[in-house]
Specification:
GO molecular function: chromatin binding
Largest sheet: 6 strands, antiparallel
Subcellular location: Nucleus; Chromosome; Chromosome, Centromere
Structural class: mainly alpha
Oligomer: single chain
Distance between the termini: 96 Å
GO biological process, one term: sister chromatid cohesion
Subunit structure: Part of the cohesin complex which is composed of a heterodimer between a SMC1 protein (SMC1A or SMC1B) and SMC3, which are attached via their hinge domain, and RAD21 which link them at their heads, and one STAG protein.
Strand content: under 5%
Number of strands: 9
Helix content: 55-70%
Protein name: Cohesin subunit SA
Mean pLDDT: 75
Length: 1072
């Protein structure tokens, strides 16, 4: 409870009450009009410093005392600071800290002469800061224990008047706040979006701290100001209105924080008084008076500190304990943030288990911001070693929860929790470390980098130097041995984690804290060049992977696939560091890499060949011809001996980077490349004759020729391409499937590389290719894809279901995906005609799970090349499928695997239509699809008694899937085009055979609204018998009702219809 006011204060209040009886029943009001509200002040510019009395005065006092107080404060403000004129306490927030101090000083002077009116000004300030536009009425009371007074403390609504009322006790007043009912739905200053909300929060907190700082030596201890203020904030913080509750809770906890500062200054004064008292005790009797004075001063300070601590306890119990679990997360955040500040600043009172438990409980809050405030507060506590003994019980109780928060769904909470654990690593067990160190492989880079700090400080930085000698000659050796020890510890950690192929992520995690170790490339190469008996092959491979990853990190930066949170834009300082690192690695590895290539095994060569592309051409050592020649010679020797795909690909990338024109080693690199390729050409010539006889020879000559064509194009390349394609065409009919597959891949890769490099070297040439495959070769390639990838894969998978496991099936799928991708590249790069893709597009839906992504990407790539030709290819695909279906139905034979049902063709058309996303961009394409479809149905059709409908009329149902992609003007144009083709034919709307036309018309005129239910052609079955209807009579009668309105619309809209007389059988002939 708040202590009672002093007797003097009570008597003064009574006298003031009597003097104001002439007014309305001992009440005084402070009115805030709607026009001059706090919201209007918030819209004023922050930089506006000059205020006039007429535009700034927004508090009109009915009490004479309040009026005089405001006038006196305005006058003193004008005398002290000319640019501050007649402002309210709310307006002073917009005027900066210096003006705030001046106005608060004026308010303190006014408080000394008329404290009731000044307190009313302060009360109105907090009401205005809550965004309230209403009226505050103050009513005097004598005792807050009176039951009649307590019964008035209500908060109610008046729906008729549209007002809310709240009465609460701020002794010696009963305050009544009246405001509109929609205040809670309006943004109040603290939660306003944009910079204003953040600025107001800061200025409001500064006002509270300045108010306490200016009053700490005087009126704060008068037993009147703080009692009223604490009572006001406590009552408003318990309000049901969010604006009052949030604003006054913030003010209350900031008031407690300011009181903590006052208590700290008093504690410092008490300590100084105690020291002076101890000094005075040793002096003579004549100085006893000074000793007594120090004792009295210390006693007074202790009493003031006790009073301050009592105020803090009242605020904590009255506000914090009720609001730290408030429904509003912003209030919970404020409470936790300030609690952490109290514990850190005034640990003698607040750093105890009775207060720490609230921090532990709120770490389970469902809102991430609240959990984050708790973690940040704990960082300040665990970062001070003096606080750790007081945190033992809290640590034992909540350590598991803190560790589990590293897996928090909010990334910032997880990162800050990891930082907390880094600062408090003394409380972690080996099992905890084992769990936390695995976060170096996290997909979030900030979390992984923080875990890297823990790894570096725990394992790598804790390694002791190998020698303690201080001689200058042995200092480098000792440092080298320490680096080796750290590398061994790093290798041991990686091997224990058993997360292979994650070296780049481990290096990225350690880069910020252990960059000096990872950039010590001389130590890496020295360890690799040592006797291989001292390092196992597995550790040697791992050391090379770390070396390559560190080189990549230094050259490209921390951007990794699958890891987010890295800076996408590098600063000038980071770019300079990156350039210096590239120079250092180029200077060292350019001379050492040949030695490593000659020493390591074949498994490691592919990793080492990833280093040269990161060399910096501007390096001074780049002009060292001896080092470059040594590297090229060793590279040639490696490629001559090793034929593994990884080594050959690495060698191709090395020569590609070294042969760039801007590099200093371009000329010797190209000479070495030409010499190497010439040797391969001679070897290829000797093997070409035997490649058709020996099935396994296809592996070698295909790879060699692919590498040769990627490297360079010698003279007479057209003849060589033709010779190679003819031999490969012959191999496509080989009895061994592996030979056929290698021949197919060899042709596709060579022709694709030929087309790609021709465009790269001469982008301005858009002429025909140097060599175009013959029609027979094109058909052979397409037949290989259709037989083995699509149709053949079904039979193969069915026959191997019981004999092969899941791994073999995945390997086969990967093999056939590569085959399909190689064929699609020929179409994308213009080697084959785009119409050759129609056969591939047919299987988009049937093999969607296995090859759908490849076919879909091919559709988009061909559309980027030529959208009109791509649309013709889609039309050709659908028409070929439809013709095959019709032929099978007419023949009545056994179903063929390559023929799809009508439903599947219709679904394929729907999927094709979905690819036309931008209706304006692909307007011509969609119109082309409709025109070609109409011509496909009605072209060369002559109506006879035996054939009253076109043979492919049901194709219009498939074509209707594209109607939704037509723009409204295009729908009218296509409809007119359809009328042109049907004008010469007699159409009977009641006959079922014409239903596809009706449905297609409806889709064009937006009558059917995209309904799919009218599947009037049962094309999944065989062709209809002459006397057998596709639909039952009952079903057709139901369908007729659905189309009656559509048919009438067509007869109304189409002005060129001719209706023949009724023949008596109920049939109406309509001619277009």
């Amino acid at each position: 409870m708040i202590p009672e006011a002093t007797a003097a204060a009570a008597s003064r209040s009574s006298e003031q009450n009597k003097s104001s009886c002439a007014k309305a029943d001992t009440s005084e009001a402070v009115s805030h009009s709607e026009e001059d509200s706090g919201n209007e002040n918030r819209r004023k510019s922050v930089r506006r410093r000059r205020r006039t009395h007429e535009s700034s005065e927004n508090v009109k006092c009915k009490s004479p005392k309040a009026s005089c107080s405001g006038t006196r404060r305005a006058g003193r403000g004008h005398g002290k600071q000319k640019h501050v004129e007649a402002v309210t306490l709310f307006e002073v927030i917009t005027m900066g800290r210096s003006a705030m101090q001046a106005v608060i000083d004026d308010w303190i002077e006014a408080y000394g002469s008329d404290r009731d009116s000044s307190l009313l000004d302060l009360i109105s300030f907090f009401i205005q800061c809550s965004g309230c536009k209403g009226v505050v009425t103050a009513e005097m009371c004598q005792s807050k224990e009176d039951s009649e007074v307590m019964s008035k403390m209500v908060e109610e609504l008046d729906e008729t008047a549209g007002l809310q009322y709240k009465k609460f006790l701020a002794f010696p007043w009963i305050l009544t706040v009246t405001w509109p009912m929609d205040t809670d739905s309006v943004e109040y200053p603290l939660v306003q979006s944009g910079p204003y909300g953040r600025w107001f929060h800061s200025e409001f907190c500064d006002f509270v701290s300045v108010l306490v700082a200016q009053c700490q030596h005087g009126i704060i201890f008068d037993g009147y100001l703080m009692n009223t203020l604490i009572s006001l904030l406590t009552e408003l913080s318990n309000s049901c209105v969010r604006a009052f509750r949030h604003t006054c809770t913030l003010a209350a906890v900031k008031l407690l924080s300011s009181l903590v500062g006052v208590a700290l200054s008093l504690s410092a004064g008490i300590e100084n008084s105690q020291k002076l008292y101890e000094v005075q005790k040793t002096k003579t009797m004549r100085q006893k008076s000074a000793q007594q004075l120090e004792k009295v001063q210390r006693k007074i300070a202790e009493e003031k500190r006790a009073e301050i601590e009592s105020m803090m306890d009242i605020i904590f119990k009255g506000v914090f304990l009720k609001r730290y679990r408030d429904v509003l997360p912003e209030i919970r955040c404020v409470c936790m943030e300030e609690l952490g500040l109290w514990m850190k600043l005034y640990s003698s009172v607040f750093l105890s288990d009775s207060y720490l438990k609230y921090m532990g409980w709120m770490m389970h809050d469902k809102v991430p911001d609240v959990r984050l405030k708790c973690v940040l507060a704990l960082q300040g506590l665990y970062g001070d070693p003096l606080f750790l003994p007081k945190l033992d019980l809290f640590t034992s109780r909540f350590k598991d929860r803190i560790i589990s928060m590293t897996l928090d769904k909010d990334s910032e909470v997880a990162v800050q929790t990891m930082k907390l654990l880094v600062t408090s690593d003394d409380v972690l067990t080996p099992e905890d470390y084992k769990h936390l160190l695995q976060f170096v492989y996290s997909s979030q880079r900030p979390l992984a980098a923080t875990a890297g700090e823990l790894l570096f400080s725990r394992l790598l930085n804790a390694v002791a130097p190998a020698s303690d000698t201080q001689d200058g000659s042995n200092e480098d050796e000792a440092c080298k041995q320490q680096t080796f020890a750290r590398l061994k510890a790093l290798l041991h950690f990686y091997q224990e984690s058993e997360l292979h192929n994650h070296v780049v992520y481990l290096v990225d995690s350690l880069w910020d804290c252990g960059g000096a170790l990872l950039k010590d490339w001389p130590s890496f190469t020295s360890a690799l060049l040592q006797d291989s008996s001292s390092c196992s092959p597995g550790r040697e491979m791992l050391l090379v992977e770390i070396l390559v990853a560190s080189v990549r990190q230094a050259s490209e930066g921390p951007v990794l696939a699958g890891r987010s949170g890295a800076k996408k834009v590098m600063s000038a300082r980071d770019k300079k560091i990156q350039n210096d690192d590239c120079l250092k690695l180029t200077e060292h590895l350019l001379t050492v890499l040949p030695k490593l290539l000659s020493k390591v095994s074949s498994d490691i060569l592919a990793y080492l060949m990833r280093i040269p592309p990161y060399f910096l051409p501007e390096c001074l050592h780049a002009e060292n011809t001896q080092a470059v020649s040594s590297l090229l010679t060793e590279l040639e020797a490696v490629l001559d001996v090793h034929s593994g795909p990884a080594v050959l690909e690495g060698g191709a990338r090395v020569f590609l980077s070294l042969c760039r024109e801007e590099t200093a080693w371009c000329s010797p690199a190209r000479a070495a490349r030409d010499s190497l390729v010439q040797r391969w050409v001679d070897r290829l010539t000797a093997l070409l004759g035997e490649s058709l006889k020996v099935s396994t020879a296809g592996f070698m000559w295909t790879q060699l020729l692919c590498v040769r064509l990627v490297f360079m194009y010698p003279e007479k390349k057209e003849l060589q391409l033709r010779l190679f394609c003819e031999r490969s065409h012959h191999c496509l009919s080989h009895g061994d499937l592996s030979v056929r597959q290698q021949a197919f891949l060899g042709v596709c890769d060579v022709l694709t590389a030929h087309s790609y490099q021709l465009r790269v070297w001469d982008p301005t040439s858009f002429g025909p290719l140097l060599y175009t495959p013959s029609p027979k070769l094109q058909r052979a390639l397409l037949n290989f894809v259709c037989v083995h990838v699509f149709v053949g894969s079904d039979y193969d998978s069915q026959s191997r279901d019981h004999s092969e496991g899941k791994v073999e099936k995945l390997e086969d799928l990967h093999k056939w995906r590569n085959v399909l991708a190689a064929y699609c590249k020929l179409i994308i790069h213009g080697v084959l005609e785009m119409s050759m893709a129609a056969e591939v597009f047919m299987y988009y839906m049937k093999y969607y799970n296995d090859f759908g992504d490849i076919i879909k990407e091919t559709v988009y790539r061909t559309r980027q090349m030529d959208k009109i030709e791509s649309a013709r290819t889609l039309v050709l695909c659908l028409q070929q499928l439809f013709v095959r279906l019709k032929q099978e139905q007419e023949s009545g034979g056994r179903p063929h695997p390559g023929v799809q049902t009508f439903t599947s063709i219709k679904e394929l058309a729907r999927r094709f239509a979905l690819t036309f996303g931008d209706l304006v961009k692909f307007r011509e394409c969609v119109v082309l699809v409709h025109r070609n479809g109409i011509e496909f149905v009605f072209q060369d059709f002559t109506q006879t008694p035996d054939s009253s409908t076109p043979l492919y009329l049901s194709y219009l149902t498939i074509l209707s899937e594209f109607s939704s992609k037509l723009l409204r003007p295009d729908k009218k144009a296509v409809f007119s085009y359809l009328q042109k083709h049907t004008a010469e034919h007699i159409i009977d709307l009641r006959e079922e055979c014409w239903q596809p036309l009706i449905y297609y018309r409806a889709s064009l005129l937006a009558v059917a609204e995209g309904e799919d239910a009218i599947s009037y052609v049962s094309s999944d079955r065989k062709a209809n018998l002459p006397n057998r209807l596709p639909f039952s009579k009952q079903k057709w009668e139901g369908r007729r009702a659905e189309f009656s309105q559509a048919q009438s619309d067509f007869l109304t809209i189409t002005s060129c219809f001719r209706c023949e007389p009724d023949d008596g059988d109920g049939t109406v002939e309509v001619e277009l």
